[in-house]
Amino acid sequence: MFNERILCAGFGGQGIMSLGQLLAYGGMSEERHVSWIPSYGPEMRGGTAYCSVVLSEKEVGSPIVTTNATTAVIMNTPSLIKFEKSVISGGIILVNSSLVNRRVTRKDVNVYYIPAVELAGECGNQQAANIVMLGAYLALTQAVTEKSIISALPKVFGEKPKKFIDLNRRALELGQKAVLGHGPKLAAA
Amino acid sequence: MPKSLMKGNEALAKGAILGGCTHFFGYPITPQNEIPEFLARELPKTGGIFLQAESEIAAINMVYGAAAAGGRPMTSSSSPGIALMQEGISLLAAAELPSVIVNVQRGGPGIGTIQPSQCDYFQMTRGGGNGDYSIIALAPSTAQESAEMMIDAFELAQRYRTPVFIVSDGMLGQMMEPVTMPSKVPQQSVKKDWAAVGHDNRRPPITIKTLALDPCDLEQINLRLQEKFMRIRESESRYETYRISEAELIFCGYGSVGRILKNSVDQLRHEGVRVGLLRVKTLWPFPVEAFNVLPPRCRHILSTEMNCGQMIDDVRLAVNGKIQVTHYGRPGGIIPTPEELADHAKNILAGGCQ
């Protein structure tokens, strides 16, 4: 049964919430049951921020995926420490190796190290590191089509010039290239 | 009808506009702030009034004023803010003023935390104000239901001339889900010959007050209110059952926990464990009748809440000793996982610790 539970975590300002919302909007447009929920504790004011996204064939019960994520998108080191254990055995951990200075210690998950900030810089804006990570996630899981994500951009970011859409499209593609053709753990090379 | 992705709080606010809300009065508090944020922007566009009060006490008394003048007012707050409003809520119930009060619950007691909780079940169903009164309390489980119940709340408030609670929590308020909104809700025009709308010197002025010093008068007022509460009990209780056929254990929950339990039920049914769910949609009137139609095989009801055990009182009264009832809950802002709820049920069915 299709039931993706994605945990996105990082610093406030890294686009964690918008990454999750793009997935939720994209999934909704493909007639999935979806949910998105942010962390809204005091940690939003300067510390780690995270959000949970569920994309499912069935009605969503619990929207919280901090204990049973199928994929974790980890954008900074504190998030790796906090959420490494949150992923199910056989799940995926995507690590933003531009900022995360340690390795995943678990052996029962598929890990991809992606230099997301550098790759986003190649597209023209380092702030698109979240979109690079999203591209990697989509490539590995096919959970949502790139087309649906592109259509969701104005819903999350408002109407933007074509330049903005093109940049995000490139970021998705670089994220995809970073993981396809590499086995797990090799993508940092 | 197109779907939009919205937070539970936004769905409540949008539902309020569709339900014909004319006035919003409130004071900021997390985790309900998206409601006033949305209404500050959108309510004036429909000719309504948005006013940020100087306190919760002021807000609830402004609700009294607007309702007394024939409006369709609402307020929203979160647990400690609702505590401050209790005197005004008792006045609204006594004066029979149609109004809607939203509680997006957070962990208590005291100022507590901003994280989700269901620790206000007693506050919502037993009343925190003085006197013999009951208030309809609708408990949504999804953003869609938040919108629908909000529309309903305005309708029920008018029909029965009563305040109505919406009982949400921080999880439902903050999460985003697809919602299909009706484009327009037809509103019954209610004749309000009791409202203080100006008399133009053609009739004596109407005053809406709750002081009744003569005990004979006040007894009659109480009996009339009780007659209304009885009518509400008879027609407005609501619930949903989920996979209860042949169930040996039935979870009973509402709101956030009511939806999380669906995952627990699915997981256990997949493992061949016979469990089901009774989701309570009206905390008051409590759906007592639901407990008469449980499968004969059912030998345990697990009342499950994000608190230390409050609804269990109503479950026990409804079951009346026929089936064993126990509580499982997480207080203080912790959201239970479907897995821990499933484990607890398995433990009970295996004869373990309850």
TrEMBL record, chain A:
<dbReference type="GO" id="GO:0016903">
    <property type="term" value="F:oxidoreductase activity, acting on the aldehyde or oxo group of donors"/>
</dbReference>
<dbReference type="InterPro" id="IPR002869">
    <property type="entry name" value="Pyrv_flavodox_OxRed_cen"/>
</dbReference>
<keyword id="KW-0560">Oxidoreductase</keyword>
<feature type="domain" description="Pyruvate/ketoisovalerate oxidoreductase catalytic">
    <location>
        <begin position="12"/>
        <end position="175"/>
    </location>
</feature>
<dbReference type="InterPro" id="IPR052554">
    <property type="entry name" value="2-oxoglutarate_synth_KorC"/>
</dbReference>
<dbReference type="Pfam" id="PF01558">
    <property type="entry name" value="POR"/>
</dbReference>
<protein>
    <submittedName>
        <fullName>2-oxoglutarate ferredoxin oxidoreductase subunit gamma</fullName>
    </submittedName>
</protein>
<dbReference type="InterPro" id="IPR019752">
    <property type="entry name" value="Pyrv/ketoisovalerate_OxRed_cat"/>
</dbReference>
UniProtKB/TrEMBL annotation, chain B:
<dbReference type="GO" id="GO:0016491">
    <property type="term" value="F:oxidoreductase activity"/>
</dbReference>
<feature type="domain" description="Pyruvate flavodoxin/ferredoxin oxidoreductase pyrimidine binding">
    <location>
        <begin position="15"/>
        <end position="229"/>
    </location>
</feature>
<dbReference type="Pfam" id="PF01855">
    <property type="entry name" value="POR_N"/>
</dbReference>
<dbReference type="InterPro" id="IPR052368">
    <property type="entry name" value="2-oxoacid_oxidoreductase"/>
</dbReference>
<dbReference type="Pfam" id="PF17147">
    <property type="entry name" value="PFOR_II"/>
</dbReference>
<dbReference type="InterPro" id="IPR029061">
    <property type="entry name" value="THDP-binding"/>
</dbReference>
<keyword id="KW-0560">Oxidoreductase</keyword>
<dbReference type="InterPro" id="IPR009014">
    <property type="entry name" value="Transketo_C/PFOR_II"/>
</dbReference>
<protein>
    <submittedName>
        <fullName>2-oxoglutarate ferredoxin oxidoreductase subunit alpha</fullName>
    </submittedName>
</protein>
<dbReference type="InterPro" id="IPR002880">
    <property type="entry name" value="Pyrv_Fd/Flavodoxin_OxRdtase_N"/>
</dbReference>
<dbReference type="InterPro" id="IPR033412">
    <property type="entry name" value="PFOR_II"/>
</dbReference>
<feature type="domain" description="Pyruvate:ferredoxin oxidoreductase core">
    <location>
        <begin position="247"/>
        <end position="340"/>
    </location>
</feature>
